[in-house]
Write a structure and sequence with these properties.
Low-confidence stretches: none
Helix content: 40-55%
Largest sheet: 8 strands, parallel, barrel
Radius of gyration: 17 Å
Bound molecules: cytidine-5'-monophosphate
Number of strands: 8
Strand order of the largest sheet: 1-2-3-4-5-6-7-8
């Protein structure tokens, strides 16, 4: 049993840890997220290895720089074969639009599939207090929806947001838009450093297309059982 809507975050440091977790989860999990912690430790080969194992990969490097640099960075990453790559929406409309256009053009030129490009709205660890310290006055939820609309207008495929904001994003951006939600915690699980969380079932009901789950699976005593229990909950939605 696997479900492409579940993405397991590989927030580990070594190739061995990756292999152990991926082999432990086996056919249960088909989609993995490679973030900066792993990518900076072991380098790009881990993406190639996961693809060779037949897995889907969300390469979560959260690019945030001037338009030309982000477009160039994504074009370099594209050759690894990840299925989803991402940027920060707060980099602005021009940055996102340039990145999407350049990536699509590079993929067409090289004759390879273009990964989906999605944008981080507001990190799911952000709470209202930290938000206010940034000088922001708009509620986080409204800001997330504003960034989601901007992301769509710039020609990207979707956003990363908290499951609590998924419903308003779905209403604002329509059906054909990826909503990838970290901050997913089964009922009773530790919240860790996340703030704006929901259960797997709630996240899907709110309109999420993919759930990113890290510690509730990775740090569980029996990771495969933890993944299966989340998949069972997902299957009921
Ligand atoms: O362990 P946990 O389930 O909290 O892992 C969530 C993963 O999703 C982490 O890899 C984190 O970097 C990532 N993420 C997030 N919030 C975002 C974007 C990505 O938590 N807005």
């Amino acid at each position: 049993m696997s479900d492409d809507r579940l993405i397991v975050a590989l927030d580990v440091h070594t190739r061995n840890d990756v292999k152990n977790l991926v082999l432990t989860l086996g056919e249960t999990v088909s989609y993995y997220k490679v973030g900066m912690e792993l990518f900076y430790s072991v380098g790009p080969d881990v993406v190639r290895w996961l693809k060779k194992e037949g897995k889907h990969v969300f390469l979560d490097l959260k690019l945030h720089d001037i338009p030309n640099t982000v477009a160039g960075g994504l074009t370099s990453l594209m050759t690894l074969g990840a299925d989803i790559v991402n940027v920060h929406a707060s980099g602005g409309y021009t940055m996102m639009k340039t990145a999407a256009e350049r990536l699509h053009a590079a993929a067409a030129e090289q004759g390879i599939p273009c990964p989906k490009i999605i944008a981080i709205t507001v990190l799911t660890s952000m709470n209202e207090e930290d938000w206010a310290k940034l000088g922001e006055t708009e509620p986080i939820a409204d800001h997330v929806t504003r960034l989601a609309k901007l992301t769509k207008a710039a020609g990207l495929d979707g956003v990363v947001a908290s499951p609590r904001e998924a419903a308003s994003i779905r209403t604002a951006c329509g059906d054909n838009f990826l909503i990838v939600t970290p901050g997913v915690r089964p009922a009773g699980a530790s919240i860790d450093d996340q703030s704006r969380i929901a259960t797997p079932g709630e996240a899907l009901k709110n309109g999420a297309t993919h759930l990113v789950v890290g510690r509730p699976i990775r740090a569980a005593e029996h990771p495969k059982e933890a993944a299966l229990s989340i998949l069972n909950e997902m299957a009921t939605v």
